[in-house]
Each structure stands twice: as C-alpha cells, then as structure tokens.
Amino acid sequence: MRRCAPEPMSRFPASGPPIDRVPMNGDHGADGAPIRLTVLTGFLGAGKTSLLNRLLSQTLVANLAVVVNEFGAVGLDQLLIETASSDGVIDVSEGCVCCTVRGALVDTLVMLATWSRPAGAPPLERVIVETTGLADPTPILASLMTHPFLCEAYALDGVVTVVDHLAGAANLAERPEARRQVAVADRIVLTKGDVVTDAGQGPLLAAIAALNPGVRHVDARDGEGLAQRLFGCGVVDPATGKADPARWLGSGASGHGGHNSHDHTHDHAARDHSAHGAIRSFAIVQAEPVAWEAVVAFLDLMTATQGERILRMKAIVHVQESPTRPVVLHGVRSYQHPPAQLAGWPAGMAPETRIVLIGDHLDETYARDLFAAFTGGLRSDAPDRAAVEANPLAVPGHSFG
Predict the structure, then answer these.
(1) Model pTM?
(2) Residue 375 belongs to a domain with what CATH number?
(3) Domain extent for 91
C-alpha cells in the first residue's frame, strides 16, 4: 500500500501526474484493501440513530463496526442501537466529534484497523462513524487525509447526511452546522416525509439544492436496500466495479463544455443563498487538457489563500502529460488525498477537467480567475499567470519554484 503523509495540497508533485490506479473505493474485498469508512451525520433529532438501526438490520455486521459519538458527559445514542455484532458499537462520548473527541476518534479508528480478529472471523471491511448532531464533518474527513496511518488503512466511502422534513428547512436557515452537513454530503437521507405534504417539502428541497445541487436524495420511507443506496459513494461504482467519476462528482456539477464553463442551473441555485449563509458550491470546467504543474500551482495558491474556506473539493483532471488517463483529486480544507489516476476515461464521458468546490465564504470569481490565470484561459479584467506570479503580495511568504 502506497505511503501517504499529512501534507497539504501544496505538496503535490509538480513534475508530472501520478501513475497509480484510483485507490478511492477500489476493488472491494481484496487482500490489503482499505477499510471503507462512511460518515453518518445530520442535525439533532433528524433520525440518524433510527436510520442506523435499519441499516444494521439489513447489513452483515460481522465485518462492520460502528463508532457512535454523543455530545455530553454520558453517551445515550448507543443505548438505542441494536446490533448482534460483538465489536459493533464503540461509544466515544467525551464531546463533539469535530472538536474535543477528535483525538479519541482517531485512536478508535487506529485500534479498529489494527485489531486482531478472532480465528475464522472475516476481516473488518467497513466502519460507520455516527457524528453528534452538532458536528461539522470536515475535520473528520481531514483526519482521514492527513493522519499517516488512517490514510492508508481507510478509504472514505462517503458522507451520508440525514435531514428531516419537519425541522430541516429551519435548521438550514438558522444553523451553520446543518448547512455544512448538507454541503459536504454524498447522499441526503430525507426523514419524516409522512408528516408533510408534497407541497410542504418544497422549501427544504430548495434549501438543499442551493447548498448541494448534485447530491442524490434517498427517502427514508423506502427502507429496502438501504445499504446499496447509501454505501459505495466513491469514484468506483460498486454495482459495476468500474470508475464512474461523473456519478461521484454529482449531476449538479455538470457543465456545458468550453473553457471555464459550468452548469448554469447549478450556478443560479448556488447564488441564491441569502437565506442559507455563505455556504455554496460551484464547478470549474475546461475541455482542453491542462498541464499538471499548472493544476499544482492553482491548488497551491488556492490552499494558501482560501484553504480554510474550502469545505470539500472533488475533481477529475484532463492532464496534458497523460490525456488518456484522468487524474482524480479529493480535498478538504487545506488537505488533499494523494492524487490518483484512472486507467482511462470511462465510456461515455468526454475528456475534460471538472473541479467541484464546496466552500464557506469561498470567492467563486477569485477561484475562476486564478484557474484561468494558471491554465491560460481568458477571463475579463483578470490577471494572467505571469501577473499573478509576479505579484509579491499575492500570498505573503509564498513563491513559485
């Protein structure tokens, strides 16, 4: 298994693209394969534990572990989880998973990955981390990318966010934690749909679309096959065993082709965010291949200037040095999963660079201008690469070598 270190985006190799096959959600069950990790999040009272109970009732628990986090002095949620697995539930109840309990969570994940299983027991294949309702999930994702052991032992399968029809719209309007939980999600599970009319669902669905327009919705009332719909959110489609980056990036990230284009419906929904704070997403798309070192420089400067505003970044890159083999990127905050390269472009997907950025107060114009500057694109009233690199005040203490 390839070694990865806790390095920020700026540590990308600039000499050329990586040559690995994609490790994110790769061949399941192979010897030495990483443990799939699902982050189950959602605001207080949304129904995470009820969903987890139903999920466990449909899933083989002999090769699965659950880590439950509960805010407060005494953990309660684990008492509501029914599982026959001897190693099924580990309660980490010393505080919010995104702050005081983060260290304990890392220790727990390390323990699970190194735990000697009983003779004849199948290897651990999946871990579900249920966060407290007050958690921002991005620090958990950052830990998976930056911890030298966790980034080898685990592969992020996806972020599943539970949102209830009864209080969801109000939570998204009033609570930044709820907005971040939705913004970074790979799947949204909608609960309590039986207590609202179809017309009454409109405000919540619009709020979700404004934050994460490409996310797939799952209705909790349809409880059959939950595992198939909630697991397998990565680059590789578990149903086919083949890479499907368009599915991973989300339909809301689709564009219309051409340099720096992006989906107009997505953009308009994202711009109408006055009721939902400054959390939004957008996609940068370019059909022409780009030099790998230009991508490195773009991400380097984005990290230096906007790193704390980037909640999540997912991208597929059409690189000049290897135009038939796209590079997959996945980042959180200032940190990046080691780049990975697919064996080729999936059938039916046109070669192009597509960078989906989900941010909090992230300046879209700045990101687009910066990408255009480093890749040779034309943006009105925007500096080119030479001007950006020549400006010593662009990032204090930062230089290009």
Answers:
(1) 0.75
(2) 3.30.1220.10
(3) 26-233
